[in-house]
C-alpha cells in the first residue's frame, strides 16, 4: 500500500511537471522570444556634427562611439542602396541614443507640420532633476517649442499626478521631451540625489492607432510587459502635446532592461496622418529602437508566424571591427515605427 502511494504521488508529480513544461512551451510559441533589453533609441540626422553638438552641449549627452560603415550587408539591412553611414552612439546616465547620418544618399526631411498624433510621431523622454532649470537651459539655447511651456499633470490623473513635462524639437525636427518625476513616481533611480541636471532616458513614446493591436506586437510577439496605464485629459495635456482637445490612452511597457516603450493612443481627436508608405531609413523622420534578443533568426521566424513582416528579408550578419552587433534585422510595428532587432 505504501509503495502504491509513492508511485501514485510520483505519477501525479510527473503529470504536473509535464503540464507545466507544456504550458511554458505554449507560452514561448504564443509570446515569441522575449526581448532581453531595449538597448538604444536611434534617429536619422542631416548633419552629424551639428547633432552631436546639440545633444552634448545642450542636453549633456556624452559620445560613446563614432564609426562609418558602408557595403552590401548594410544595404540589405536598411533597404537603402548605395549608402554610406556615419553612426554616433551617445550616452546619458545609463541609456543611449544612436544618431545616423546618411552621407549617401540622404532622404526626406521631417514634415514641418508634424503633430503629436501623427503616426510617425516618436520621442525620447529625458529625465531632469529640476524642470525650471532645464527649461531655462533650453530657452538659453533657443530650442523650438512644441508645448507652450512646461506642464504639470494635475491630481485628477492619479497615475501621473505631479509629473512635469515639456515637448520640444532638436535641430532636425525630432520631437523630444523633458520629464521630472515627483517623489513616488517613475523609476526610483530618478530620485537618487545628484547634482546632474539631465539624468537619463526614461522611455521612448510612439503614437499608435490602436492599443490592442500594438499590444499583440509588443507584448505577445516580443514579450514586453505592460507596467502602467493612464487616461490623460485636460488643458495641461492639450498644451503639452499642442493638440486641441487631446485625450490619450497611455500604456507603458518594459523589457528586462533599458528604457521603456510608451504607447500614445489619441482617443480624441483621434489618430493623425498615417506613416508614409514610402518611408525609408535615411528619411529624417526615421527613428529605430534597438532590441536585443538571444537569437535573431528565431525572433524573425516568430514575428513572421505572428503575422508581422520584417522589412529586412532575413537577418543580416555583420562583420568587421566597426560592426555594432553580430546579426540583426529591421521590422516595422503595426503603425510603421521601426525596430532594429539584434543578436550579440
**Helix fraction bin:** 10-25%
- Spans with pLDDT under 50 lasting ≥5 residues? 1-32
End-to-end distance: 56 Å
The CATH topology label of the largest domain is 2,3-Dihydroxybiphenyl 1,2-Dioxygenase, domain 1
Would you state the CATH class of the largest domain? Alpha Beta
Major sheet characteristics: 9 strands, mixed
Could you say how many structural domains there are in total? 3
Q: State the assembly state of the protein chains.
A: single chain
| Beta-strand residue fraction | 25-35%
Computed structural class: alpha+beta
Number of separate helices: 7
Number of DSSP-assigned strands: 17
How are helices and strands ordered from N to C? HEHEHEEEHEEEEEHEHEEEHEEE
User: Could you tell me the radius of gyration in angstroms?
Assistant: 22 Å
**Mean pLDDT, all residues:** 91
- Outline: globular
CATH superfamily of the largest domain, called what? 2,3-Dihydroxybiphenyl 1,2-Dioxygenase, domain 1
CATH architecture of the largest domain: Roll
Task: Describe this structure as you would to a colleague.
The protein is α+β, with helices and mostly antiparallel strands and 344 residues long. The chain folds into three domains: 1-31; 37-108 and 279-343, 2,3-Dihydroxybiphenyl 1,2-Dioxygenase, domain 1, CATH 3.10.180; 122-268, 2,3-Dihydroxybiphenyl 1,2-Dioxygenase, domain 1 (Roll). It has helices at 2-31, 48-57, 72-78, 131-140, 211-221, 235-241, 296-305, and strands at residues 37-45, 62-70, 84-92, 95-104, 122-128, 144-145, 151-152, 164-169, 175-180, 198-208, 225-233, 247-254, 260-268, 287-293, 316-317, 327-332, 338-343. Strands 5, 6, 7, 8, 9, 10, 11, 12 and 13 form a nine-stranded mixed sheet that branches. Strands 2-3-4-1-14-17-16-15 form an eight-stranded mixed sheet, sandwiched between helices. A hairpin with a 5-residue loop joins strand 8 (164-169) and strand 9 (175-180). The longest helix is centred in the first third of the chain and has 30 residues, at 2-31. The radius of gyration is 22 Å and the shape is globular. The N and C termini lie far apart (56 Å). The model is unreliable at 1-32 (pLDDT under 50).
